[in-house]
């Protein structure tokens, strides 16, 4: 049974599948091939095999350079940071730039309460006519 939810990166020579669908570093499909042939190709071109899709038949692997793997890891980390985590609430508050002083103070208190409760707060200010 292969490990689930592994981090994105080179799998090295530990490939649990016999038949793989291989994609080269330019994104072109090389078709289905045996694990030994994929490892030979990896060694010839001095590249690394990376698992892209595990839940398809056959699983999809891509030949990548170390730099490509690093860039993809950074991209995925940024994407994960940007997406809200489960159980996290985002509160949004919108008001006009011509807001009265007492209304602004009330909304400021509301924002402070939300921040104390560990909510993420998004404030939008619309320009007055």
UniProtKB/TrEMBL annotation:
GO CC list: mitochondrion
Pfam family, one: IF3_N
Residue ranges constituting the Translation initiation factor 3 N-terminal domain according to the UniProt record: 11-78
Keywords: Initiation factor, Protein biosynthesis
GO molecular function: ribosome binding; translation initiation factor activity
SUPFAM superfamilies: Translation initiation factor IF3, C-terminal domain, Translation initiation factor IF3, N-terminal domain
Domain of life: Eukaryota
GO annotation (BP), single: mitochondrial translational initiation
NCBIfam families documented for this protein: infC
Family: Belongs to the IF-3 family.
Name of the protein in question: IF3M factor
Annotated source species: Mionectes macconnelli (McConnell's flycatcher)
